[in-house]
Amino acid sequence: MKKIFYAIFTLLLLALDSAPAWADDLRPPLLLTGSLQRDNQELSGAWTYSKDLYRTGLTDINGWVAKSRMQRYRDVNVAQEEAKGGAGFFEFDMDRGPVMTIPGAWNAAQPELRYYDGLMWFQRKFTPRELKGGRAFLRFEAVNYRAYIYLNGKEVGRHEGGFTPFVVEVSGALRDGENRLTVGVDSLHDAQTIPTQITDWDLYGGITRPVRLIYTPATFIDDATLHLERDGRIAGALQLNGPNAGGQTVTVKIGNLASASVTTDAQGRAAISLPAPRGLQRWSPDSPTLYDVQFAANGDVLRDRIGFRTIAVRGSQILLNDKPIFLRGVSMHEEEFGPNPARNMTEQAARALLTEIKHNLHGNYVRLSHYPHSETTLRLADEMGLLVWSEIPVYWTVDWDNPAVLRKALSMQAETVYRDRNRASVILWSVGNETPVSAPRTRFHAAMAANVRALDPTRLISAALLVERHKTGNEDVTTIQDPLLDQLDVLAVNTYAGWYGDDALADLPGMKWDLPKDRPLILSEFGADALAGYRDAGMKKFTEEYQAEYYRNTLAMAARIPTLAGMSPWVLKDFRSPRREHPLLQNGWNRKGLLSETGVRKQAFGVLADFYLHMGGKTGQ
Ligand code: GCU
Fold first, then answer.
1. Across 54-188, where does the E strand assignment appear?
2. Which residue has its alpha carbon closest to ligand 1 atom 6?
3. Glycosyl hydrolases family 2 sugar binding domain spans which residues (predicted)?
């Protein structure tokens, strides 16, 4: 019965699939994809800030309207007002507040903010250019977790979700000369947020990715996408925004390879279809060819760098450009190397991390866990040639039966797909991580799987599932008992035998797996902690020797799984987690990294690098 339900539900959503990608109500009203190449004014840099732990800048006690003396977003020069004297007074001053460098989480900015978890107000002033009939937008690449945006004392936008971009039009709210931008950021999570309040990673509250003021003509290309079809054609769609969006001729140029022109419909939309271009160099990890693509309409140009490839499954194989590929990867959090990371993923920081995977581990794949990473990282994966698993933080457990929470998850998926669907590196959309099986949970994930398939039918769907182990006699068999399997293209499991629990490392290679024979499997996580430099031949847990021996034995076990199509061991480098508080071994760090937080390689790094080298790290795709 359940399968019929899922099938009907999926068919319903997949019926949308035949409709062009714009036929979904989850599309944000404004995308401004390709904004990095647009005419913009950088607003990252020095912002003042003001703590507001009890949120009195938004709502006063008893739910009353906030007192004006606490309303951080007011367009007021406090010093000037105070100089006038009188009965009024203020309990904030955003102009004379302390300064923080944005982007970056407040937790890393000041010792007293290390575990601050609540509402923080930020302000910066800027002087915009004259619009001369054009338009202006604020684009935030990420604010964790809720954002309240005010310009010159007026609310202009809000957003929920810590890892996806959002755009606010400010054409009508800007004034000549100096403008006051105030942003309230609330990091607090609860049982109805995604993720909820407990995760195995750090708080990282704040404006964690760049903020830009973007200028466009009155009518502009808001979004444009292209991909390679299995039959060699290039297909896509675009959307114009503005008073003259309808009936516009849009030219599409793909390097010197191909060009076309399309005309938008009354809603400013157009589908694109080009015959298979001769001489197309397909994108792959070994040959990450990117084309300069240009969409031009009505005096506006949207530029992107796009790689063209296909991804599919056949039986238990993953096919990249119709050839089987093994995903030699590792999992990674969005956290730069260093003793005090602020989740400020600059290109340099991302390159340092991805270089370890590509060139030192001989990898071709990275699991960007457990949330959408920075666009900077995705574009670098395109450039360097790393395949990507992307996920939103439906992690451990969320409020499965709550329609509002499902809507949040579906919106986060849409915001991620619209941002990243031109990234050749992204091949997998994951719908969850280690979520305990229950009927409401499986319904939630099935809706997510159908949603992301309708948003993007060109990529594969997976989820990092839990395994079950059954001992029958002296047989110890690992299986996946999960009704969600039917909704996935690629199976994936997190397994920690040899770390969590009492398995002897020597027993790992002989572990038996009972898996579907016709589906590709990824070991999406396995790992063990080690404190870099803690050496002891006695094989104690947390030593480098134990972690290395764990990898040798787990890799031996993995090599015996006939349907194994890839792996992303947990985790590239040690990362911050408030759940890891052993005073000698952890100190607030999860130590499963193959590298320490400052980039010191542990013994296990070499074990995995050798394994990948011998798996074709030099030759295979
Ligand atoms: C889980 C989880 C990770 C976590 C890891 C660990 O598999 O997915 O987010 O960090 O286990 O226990 O270290």
1. 99-102, 119-126, 135-140, 143-144, 146-151, 154-160, 166-169, 179-186
2. 200
3. 106-217
